Amino acid sequence: MGFSLSGVGSGFDWQSMLEQLRKVEQNQFINPLEQQKKKQEEILSAWNTVSQKLSDLLSAVQGIKSSGDFDVFTSSLTSSSTVDPESLLSVTVGSGAPKSRFDIQVTNLAKAEKLQSISVASAADPAGWTGTITIEGREVTLDGKSLNELRDEINALNTGSDATGVMAGVLKVADGDYRLILTSEEEGAAGFQFTDAAGDYFSTLQAGEDASFSIDGISMTRSSNTITDAIAGVTLRLRGEDASTTVTLNIDRDNEAVADKIQSLVDAYNGLAKYINSQFSYDAVSKKANGMLSGDAALRSIKNRLQTSLMDQGLFSVGITFSRDGTLELDTDKLQEALSQDFSGTVSQFNDMAQSLQSVLETLTDSVEGTVTTQKRSVQEKIEKLGNRMETLDERIDARMERLKAQFIAMENAMNTMNNQMSGLSQLFSNLFTSTS
User: Which domain of life does the protein's organism represent (predicted)?
Assistant: First the structure.
């Protein structure tokens, strides 16, 4: 006989009772654990934020821990004539550059060697050339090949670890006038090694030339227009020729860029300090702590260790002070004054501070035994344990519901049997009374 937990026989909704019993047990046993797990997840999220802000601070610290980190310079170009200095020269100043001034003249730009072929009527049809040409020791057969085919073959030789350094292209001068152009990838008078075929199919389009220039009246040549070895820490890029124009290059320390590095450190520290402060803040109206890490001894220890490390450096003289809430303030005017009066001493003071902070930060952020790592690991273990307990309890509730379901099914079957028996007896008595009558 079919059966439904809807209680057709008994008239009782067993399914609804099972659902209500399950909800009661979930509210009693699982929901409290769910709330605990949610709280631990929020605590873990807070520690992850602390970890990220410590990493941001460590990155800022590592950017000023050595004297070379403050080797930032600014440069300017002025012209002795109406010629725009940028049209003759551009400059990149890097680490190790001196504070200095140089007068530069560009008399000749370096040029790459170029060869052109004789004219042919079509780039796609065979050029009618015979023999071989040699490019940097690599032979190219001409017989039966078009300019396009030769271009592709020559460019294929200019690939990989043994590239020729020679580029090929097809130039259309006019209808029926096509030429193969070979160009050295490198500038300079050395050009590239080339041997023509017997038909003398190629001639010089542009001879390779070295760059000629002078710095402070001293004549120099280089094979490239990019000069990296004339002035220490400075890259010159020659862009135009004008022997009658002198370009004056001024190089000075970029104290604003130095201040930006210090400001980045201050901002990173304040981002961390403000977040920690928010964790310890208290809402007088709700009478509750605002942060998930409120009262956490490890977080308070982190704050104290960083503050102590900074206070020990005596940074007031270089423009850094503590405000009442524990954040830092940077007086840029005072910093610029310190840099102007004693650049090396000021840089050394920041180097010492950065190295001290880095030592503290590395113990806090170490991926194995760091303070934050340990705290996160502990919280993660709590979350896993709560998850396991919830899973176990959920399985127990499922088992209990199955047992109750079986009992309800048995009860419903018994009541169905009893109802059937009662119905049979009632029918029997009815037939007896009808027969007697």
Answer: Bacteria
